[in-house]
Amino acid sequence: MDQTKKKVKVEIDTRIFIELRNAYGESTLSLDLPITSTVEDLQKILQTQLQEEEQIYSFFVGNQELNKDILTIVNEIKFNQESSLQIVYHPQSLFRIKPLTRQTAAMEGHEQPVLCVQFHTLGHILATGSGDTSIRIWDILTETPVATMNGHKNWVLCLSWSPDCLYIVSGDMNGHLCLWNSEYQQVGQIMKGHTKWVTSIAWEPMHINQDCDLFASSSKDGTVRIWSRASLNCLLSISAHQKCITKMLWGNFIYTASEDTTINVWNKNGTKVQELKGHAHWVNTIALCTDFTQRTACFSEQSQELNRGQAKQRMQKFLDGKFERLVSGSDDKTLILWEMKKPAKQIRMPGHQAQVNHVQFSPDGRYIVSASFDKSLRIWDGYTGDFICVLRGHVGPVYQVSWSSDSRYMVSASKDSTIKLWSLQKKKLLNDLPGHADEVYAIDWAPIGGEKAASGGKDKLVKIWRH
């Protein structure tokens, strides 16, 4: 007896029970909808429910994005309608950044490799530090040099704009720090204290301190020093680790990652809050989900005026009563995602075939990208630590990676002398951007006015990339 096989498809006149959840998996709303409801229908329902009329959302069922209507995704995933369909929503950036397609400038000036690049938050000025002991300031509108700042006696390894972008602090190979004002003049004397080179500089975030008058530095000597911007005195020295501190961040706490395999969490009076153990080898890099929110704390795309008062409010809205999330990358080839409650919850993320060199959360906190010496990048879920995809294309170790401010693209810098642009939505290489003649050490995408990125490397050039 013939049995004709029928393909099961959902009838169009049915309704479906759905549950809308936030990124943390908490239920916001449950309702019964026609199965033909579109993404636009869900937008309106959610905007009304959350009283956020301007906000745009993206919707996901598992790792699949809802692009059209509920019926399409129900058929794609062969959903059993006897249970409710769980849809996770994520707020999206109100501004769409165009992908980088070309190099618009190769700016000469540095006499040694360019080791660090960082945009002013508004993206119209760029600061670069080099092995020639100088820091150079570039006007991005005209793509010309503005100032050369000389004060260091050895390689400039790191620099950091203050949250209000009125000051820059730079650190060098000798362990010395210099403070520069908005006229690009050195303020006071060189700050001495570290006995080995400076590895990181971080300012106290604006949501904690609107005056931007404290910053911290970490060093190969295993200490963290907190400095006063006004007096240039070291207020506190924390003997944080027995070995080199590879990276230090300042969020709600001060976080230090070290070659001793641990990450320590401190408050600003030098008390250790907790120690995070999980890696089996050097911890090379750490990143906070709030990094971008802190960097853009007192500026916005809508208004480029300095607004110190909005920083606290923006941070509260971003965290929404939750704990900060920290991700770490190690020579043991793994990442660990930490939720900063006590004791910290940890999720191990294996997959890379060589040491992890750099990690970064997307600006919206939804994704993590990791760059490795195995020549690949990997994308992970920023809340659960789940692996999403691997991006291959580089033929040398990947040194650094930077996100576009709308969390849709990443740009990576590699030993293979290229910059590569990746699309998160397509999960693949979008544009290959050759141009450097040698290894590319540093990359930064402008946080606001983000139509441009800057890179620097061994060929002593600073390059600007635009759409």
Summarize the structure.
With 467 residues, the chain is mainly beta. Helix content is 7%, strand content 45%. It has four helices and 36 strands.
In terms of quaternary structure, the protein is single chain
- Strand fraction equals 35-45%
The unreliable regions are 1-7
Q: State the major sheet.
A: 5 strands, mixed
Count of beta strands: 36
Termini separation (Å)? 64 Å
Radius of gyration: 23 Å
Number of helices: 4
Helix-strand makeup class? mainly beta
Mean pLDDT: 92
Instruction: Output the strand order for the largest sheet.
Output: 2-1-5-3-4
Overall 3D form: globular
Determine the fraction of residues in helical runs and give it as a percent range: under 10%
Topology:
Blueprint: E1 15-21, E2 27-34, H1 39-50, E3 56-61, E4 64-65, H2 70-76, E5 85-92, E6 102-107, E7 114-119, E8 125-130, E9 134-139, E10 144-150, E11 156-161, E12 168-172, E13 177-180, E14 198-203, E15 214-219, E16 223-228, E17 234-239, E18 245-250, E19 254-258, E20 262-266, E21 272-277, E22 283-288, H3 291-295, H4 310-319, E23 325-330, E24 335-339, E25 345-349, E26 356-361, E27 367-372, E28 376-381, E29 387-392, E30 398-403, E31 409-414, E32 419-423, E33 428-433, E34 440-445, E35 452-457, E36 462-466
Parallel strand pairs: 1-5
Antiparallel strand pairs: 1-2, 3-4, 3-5, 6-36, 7-8, 8-9, 9-10, 11-12, 12-13, 14-15, 15-16, 16-17, 18-19, 19-20, 20-21, 22-23, 23-24, 24-25, 26-27, 27-28, 28-29, 30-31, 31-32, 32-33, 34-35, 35-36
